[in-house]
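TL;DR need structure tokens for one chain.
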Amino acid sequence: MQNHKKILSTAFYLCLSAVIFISGCAQTGGHGHSNHKQAIPKKCKNSTGLPTLQCASTASASFDKQGVLWVAWFDTGHVYVSRSTDKGQTFNLPVTVNRIPENIYAKGESRPKIAFGNKGEIYLSWTQKLSKKRFSGHIRFSRSIDGGEHFSDPITVNDHREITSHRFDALAVNNKGDIYIAWLDKRDLLAAKKAGKKYNGAALYYALSTDSGKTFHKNKKIADNSCQCCRVVMAMDKQQLPVIVWRHIFGDNIRDHGIVTFSQADQANNPKRLSFDNWHIEGCPHHGPAISIADDGIYHITWFNNAPDSHGLFYANSTNKAASFSKPINFGNYEKAAGHADILSLGQQVYVVWKEFDGKQSTLNLMRSDNAGKSWSPSTQLAKSSAASDHPFLVKNGQEVYASWHRIGEKFGLIRILN
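>> reply
TL;DR here they are.
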């Protein structure tokens, strides 16, 4: 009976995560989730309409150093960016990033990413969807050096060009202007199959640019046997070196999380295991982690797992560069499918947002810590919606903290979180 409940619960969360517009699946495992589809507005079903941020299925938002809010999204073959000088109240007309249309992964865990350089450069990465093979893709990159007026023709970052999966990109830029892109890559699976060998999952790769995105160094592998389709996340440590977190496959399909730090700009250390929930599942949960590194060097991390004895959303931190982690704290309402948390730290203040679903409405929820994660406030509800909605994210503008929660067909949702 316990195994039966585990299978049902796993099925629910896989269904929940795989389809962004469905916030509830068939009733499963006694959790009481009803079969409810959150509607997409009619105005967003017209594929011939002009591109509009309102109808984006996924959106990535970030403030630049001047306090301008930039949002990147995908619509009918193109990545677009819009900027707002009044913190999301109004946006300028969208600018097309890729002149030549291409299919792009833009649902749930996949979306275009945006970051900024030291001299006002704007960087975009995304995963191109290839039509020749299911789940295949290339990692793409474009930049603007004129304030977002024009963007360069996209380049493919993965130097392995066979048709296989290079997907789920993460983009980050350090204070030196170095650009890092990490992603999940199946080139080693492809090679293993050709050699008649077994290979589980994908691999984690990255590429570095030290010339503002003109070129990228040779791709380097960090780890074999990553999970295939959960978002990869990255943040910069106090030395301005990347720290990358992803869902990994340990042993016999234990889908926990790995973390890697760097010793030099282009040299990753040996990966370490981060979570020990022991979720055994022969499939991908479509549910990645989140990371934020405070000025004091503390790593703050959230993740989701669904093991029988350790399930739901979790938070933990490390004060010694991932040598060890605090005891994980379980948060959110598991019975309401709490998931897809994001985290942001500003010194001692740490913020976490996530989404829940009660069978009719999705809610955006917040908890915060004022002592670097030692204790937490009770959760509060920031917003709710019956519309289809994206995953929530946290963005900062100086010392201001905002929750970004896009609801399909509505004005872009940017919610100020008061300190």
